[in-house]
Amino acid sequence: MTRTLADWRESAYRVIFEADTPAGKRFDVVLLWSILISVALVMLDSVASIHARYGAWLYRAEWVLTALFSAEYLARLVSAPRPWRYARSFFGVVDLLAIVPTYLSLFFAGSQMLLVIRALRMLRVFRVLKLGRYVREAAVLQQALRASRPKILVFLYTVLTLVMLIGTLMYVIEGPERGFTSIPTSIYWAIVTLTTVGYGDISPVTPAGRLLASMAMILGYGIIAVPTGIVTVEMARARDSASVSTRTCHDCTREGHDLDATYCKFCGAGLPPLEPF
Amino acid sequence: MTRTLADWRESAYRVIFEADTPAGKRFDVVLLWSILISVALVMLDSVASIHARYGAWLYRAEWVLTALFSAEYLARLVSAPRPWRYARSFFGVVDLLAIVPTYLSLFFAGSQMLLVIRALRMLRVFRVLKLGRYVREAAVLQQALRASRPKILVFLYTVLTLVMLIGTLMYVIEGPERGFTSIPTSIYWAIVTLTTVGYGDISPVTPAGRLLASMAMILGYGIIAVPTGIVTVEMARARDSASVSTRTCHDCTREGHDLDATYCKFCGAGLPPLEPF
Amino acid sequence: MTRTLADWRESAYRVIFEADTPAGKRFDVVLLWSILISVALVMLDSVASIHARYGAWLYRAEWVLTALFSAEYLARLVSAPRPWRYARSFFGVVDLLAIVPTYLSLFFAGSQMLLVIRALRMLRVFRVLKLGRYVREAAVLQQALRASRPKILVFLYTVLTLVMLIGTLMYVIEGPERGFTSIPTSIYWAIVTLTTVGYGDISPVTPAGRLLASMAMILGYGIIAVPTGIVTVEMARARDSASVSTRTCHDCTREGHDLDATYCKFCGAGLPPLEPF
Amino acid sequence: MTRTLADWRESAYRVIFEADTPAGKRFDVVLLWSILISVALVMLDSVASIHARYGAWLYRAEWVLTALFSAEYLARLVSAPRPWRYARSFFGVVDLLAIVPTYLSLFFAGSQMLLVIRALRMLRVFRVLKLGRYVREAAVLQQALRASRPKILVFLYTVLTLVMLIGTLMYVIEGPERGFTSIPTSIYWAIVTLTTVGYGDISPVTPAGRLLASMAMILGYGIIAVPTGIVTVEMARARDSASVSTRTCHDCTREGHDLDATYCKFCGAGLPPLEPF
Fold first, then answer.
1. What ipTM does the predicted assembly reach?
2. Looking at the structure, do residues B78 and B158 belong to the same domain, yes or no?
3. Where is the Ion transport domain (chains A, B, C, D) (predicted)?
4. Which residues of chain C have pLDDT under 50?
5. pLDDT tens by residue, A89-146
6. CA A35, A37, A39: angle at the middle one, nearest 5?
7. Is the minimum CB–CB distance between D98 and chain C shorter than 8 Å?
8. pLDDT value at residue C276
């Protein structure tokens, strides 16, 4: 009895959480499509004209999908070996947040907007694709970004200080009557400028202001180069370490062999086989 | 008889498809110029004032060019060793698409716009230039981009998710009355912002919206660094392998040895010394 | 007596200037928070609506904070071993500039805007965090930027010349009636365009102007790549030297040896084997 | 007699063309300042308000400067060993173009705008600074850019084709009534978008147009990474080749020694002294 129950949970787990059995894969594909559809519905519903005509249908469709997702969430809770740990995991939280807004919308109108959080569930796609390749690439990216974080932080901190000073200076120069209504607004302008976004909703008019702006832009020129440099360097590192540095020749003990190397390029001795990733 | 026909096809092929005989080169140069002219005509025709005055002339000129291109297309079909394979090749399809719109324009007005697709035919220019140099550079670029694809895809996927969340959040914060008329529109705004294009046709007004926008921009700052890093790293790789691949092992005749390699990494045989660049 | 005074100064110094004693750390944390608050107050005060309602309170709060900072400044002067040197140091000047504006505001209205300079004091945060890590990263960044300076200067000089020529050309083409009111204004436009900021407050209208603008943009495309390239290369260098500089020659005790070095490049003595990272 | 004349020309040459004698340096500094002033005058003169008040003065000042520059030009012609070669050299042409507009302005009003070409003369500054350092850096930049040219050309060609297709598609989608008045205009828009300048003078309104624009932007995201990658890689190459690859150890004949290396890092033998740049 418990035996079969354990079996049932076991198999349910394989279907719901994993994607390497045909059933599991089918389950995940259906899931992804329904997520995609639900997100699309939320977006369409936000378009006034569409809402006016199909609002009622979209509303029902949303409840149906929410019901399905709720059922799925419960199934996950039940079949998970450690339900509580799943509930606190990243995907556990996302899965919950993906259904709550609909219920909330009963009390707070408009809160169903938050359903777009379902987009995050789409991240499961990588597990379905089961392209170890993509996972590894993603890992390289992550490693590079993690390695760059401290530098990026120092950089961001400097940029923020810079932006505050430029913004205030601009506020003093141009003044409220020319759109720079307050220091925070001017800082917003400074960010828009330094990041080279340049909406143009606020832009300097006085010669002095334009001179300062020009300096800020040319500064932003050099500044935008910094994060790129940081990430590029770290990425090159991550890539190299990912590709080569792991293999050593047992004879001359030198490293730096390519992935497709069978013999040491320094002493010609045979290399140890490449361990699978 | 068939003999001479074969000869004729043979020589026609050399003239039309290849560019290493004087005749063939002349043919391609004439072709490129007429393509250039035809594309220019389509563009000029789209300018109202020009269309009003020279519309009739342009119309005739277009038919003449189309006739020429049609003849050329038939000639290609006839002279090609495997007509059907040519017809399905990239250039074969482009060549066809480059003449169809004119005939379509008899039934659907305005469809001659699509003639701009002729621009694609210009890509033949590289074959005419016959600058192996350019071809090789293009190859390096392609290799680098192909190698970066998986990373770029992972990156794009993350950006899209990000853009959806930021866009929706902005829609909730700023609301329709401030230009963020719907979630898709807000997502469009988020893309315009993250890519640092910043049209300014839609821009945040409320302090909260501007705060979020500032965060998005500073985020975009770091984000724009990622593809650059990816491509740069891959390009460095492609370049190195391109500069290296000139060495061949005399035993297994395989290439791709590093500059500091003394022994073939595939068969372990000694490599020929590196010729000075 | 003097003895105890010396002691007092000694301990005061440790509390005020250093951050490795509990007291010192507490002091700095309190300081940072009050700086943060004071900067925030200045910003809020610049918002018309807030100024109208809470202006009086903000005014008082500012005076309180200024009094505190003044006391702190004096304490620093007194406890510093060489008061005069501190006064002329970067932070010494910033600390002074951080209190002066308030007093000035008694004579010149609005000068309290300059209090935002207090933001610079926030840079002390890195000393408090005492994250040698961050300091080191900052050092790498600085080294890279310092190394890139000459190239960057050459680059900037070229860009400025370019911008002057493009701007003037545009002024000649578009003329004052289309927003390009003067050469300086056109140069401002050229900078806005080349840096890809693109406010759109001034933009070409005539075909000729748009053609020139398009060329300028595509040029800016390549141009923006240059500083990035410079910084990236220098950063890679700085990073490598940072990772390498750990090896010291036991004979001449000099550092900066490459990873593949077996002998000291300065004195030719054998190097200690590279410790694994 | 001829003797002394030759002497005179000799010394005049040293003063006018070179900058390593005190007199020569003084001459060049004065020259640079007068160029700077003349360029500034042209710019100021283009500002309506200033022109109205000081137009007459600026006009006279310009003639004075032009007279000086004309005299200088003649002096250069006379003292140059090969006058004709100087006249055809880059600086020779620029020097001429720097005075012609003033005379032209007698016949064609407004042509004095072209005087801004004098800015090019400023490039002499590097020779005055005589910072071999800067010259070398500039050389590295040039080398990198020259090496990247073929790749950049292939890249530009692809971008132009892309821009033509996107522009035309946009023209078909949005149509003249929404600002996309003609295909050339739409191509201009496509360039503004792909280069992430984003003026916003023309921007898509229809959902389809915005979708296409979003794709174009995200595409531009990746595209902007390409030139950066190209330049960065070439720059790294140029830098390395500039710094190391020039020296070879006479014992083990291996390369890649740092500039500050005295002994071979591979075999410990003494290195040949570094030849001065």
1. 0.78
2. no
3. 26-241
4. 243-246, 275-277
5. 888 888 888 888 888 888 877 666 666 677 777 766 665 555 455 666 667 777 777 8
6. 70
7. no
8. 39
Amino acid at B175: G
Domain closes at, from B130, B159, B190: B130
Chain C nearest C-alpha distance from D61 (Å): 18
Q: Is residue B229 part of a domain?
A: yes
Confidence at residue C214, expressed as pLDDT on a 0 to 100 scale: 93
**D200 with A196: Cβ contact below 8 A:** no
User: Is A134's CB within 8 Å of B155's CB?
Assistant: no
Q: Which residues of A touch B171 (CB under 8 A)?
A: 46, 113
Strand partners, B238: none
- Residue D131, pLDDT > 90, answer no
Give the nearest chain B residue to A189 (CA atoms): B214
- Same-domain check for residues D153 and D197: yes
What domain count does chain B have? Answer: 2
pLDDT digits (tens, 9 = 90+) for C232-241: 888 887 766 6
CATH code for the domain of B152: 1.10.287.70
Structural domain range at position C32: 5-130
Contact A252, C257 (CB under 8 A): no
Contact B189, B167 (CB under 8 A): yes
Q: Do A165 and C227 touch (CB under 8 A)?
A: no
Say if residue C149 is in the same domain as residue C198: yes
Using an 8 Å CB-CB cutoff, list chain A residues near C200: 198, 200
Say if D2 is an interface residue toward chain C (CB within 8 Å).
Answer: no
Window 202-241 of D: residues touching A by CB (8 A cutoff) are 228, 232
pTM confidence score:
0.81
Put simply, whether C39 touches A (Cβ < 8 Å) is yes
Count of A–B CB contacts within 8 Å?
A: 174
Q: DSSP string spanning A236-264?
A: HHHHHHHHTTT---TTT------TT-SB-
According to the 3-state scheme, what is the secondary structure of B38-105? HHHHHHHHHCHHHHHHHHHHHHHHHHHHHHHHHHHHHHHHHHCCCHHHHHHCHHHHHHHHCCHHHHHC
Q: Are residues C105 and C182 in the same domain?
A: no
Q: What is the mean pLDDT of residues A27-54?
A: 86
